Sequence to fold (402 residues):
Amino acid sequence: MLRCAWRNLWRNSRRTAITLAAVTLNTALLIFIFAMNRGMLRQTLENATGVVMGEAQAHAPDYLEDRSLYKLLQADAILEIAKKNGVGAAARLYGYGLVSGDRKSAGAFFWGIDPAQEKASFKLATYIKEGRFLPEAPEGGVLLGKKLAHSLQADIGDEIVVLVQAADGSLGNELYTVSGILKAIGDSIDRSAVIMHEKDFRSLLVLQKGVHEIAFHTGGKKPAEEIRTLVASASNNAEVKTWRELSPVLSDMLRVSHGALYVFLAIFFLAAALGVMNTMLMATYERIHEFGILKAVGASPWRIVMDVLSEALVLSGFAAAMGACIGVAVSYYFQLNGLDLTGVAGDVSFAGMAFDPIWRAALSFRTVIEPVGVMCTVCVLASLYPAVIAARLDPVEAIRHV
Fold:
């Protein structure tokens, strides 16, 4: 039946070739768009969670409401259970104050970090524009956000003065050396972040115990809700929020982008279906006399429907296979090399976070099989209408048709 269907399709070679090319191109485009969209969503989430935020964060109750210096969380038990379960974790301390360079001053948001934890769990250490990341032992160096360094006119090796109100009510002030300037990460970090070693932070703000935040990152290996459950089992008083709760704008953007993709793809499927329907309708009208003879010699309506559907299946299956080969090849190229948007967009940011301007595709079994499967199904369903027309023909009138 399939061999006969293939021969029937090429009775009008030009029309079949045009339809074949259209379905092939549609399938290739669908696979490419699926792969690029999947890559964008994955890359956006990884850029948002892998540098600073993490897939979840733990804080003392109500800390995020006012970021009080005194709302501290005991980290030992949480860090221990995270390590046992293969969850990357980094404890951080935060405070506000004033930072001054040779000529200018600015308000700053101070971070106290453990450099070893950040390197092991996050990509912050790779976001150095100039200079170097903090060493594991404190040396009196700090990292400045990109825009803050520009505002202070500070360069690598320059000294800055820090003034804060310490936890004991005293005024803390100290001289630090700029050891690194960060790349664009996000508006709040770029404009105000001064990142120092945890021990330097505790000495400056007179904080002996506790942390303000523990961020968790697994690179997508564990769901955020599972991380929340793990942390809750280690600490009864920790307030744990997932990245969706920490950045609802980003969460909504990803949901809308995912939904919009399927609306966009529906247009492609509709275009392919109409093309196949048109081909099968024209083929049906050209073969009315033939269908009339078949019915006259005893062919059932179901047999004629199956003949037409088999032609649509062969046409769409062959086109989808060729389209899959083209789509996979193009997507694989962009997965390896990416699409460089630096010249168009520069430092791309959304919801206060900067993203990598190199847009890469992400191929997977699903990005290939879904477009191919849906394309074949839609094309076969589109041929039902001409198949039913052929099956309902009156044999006598069909035989007389010229």
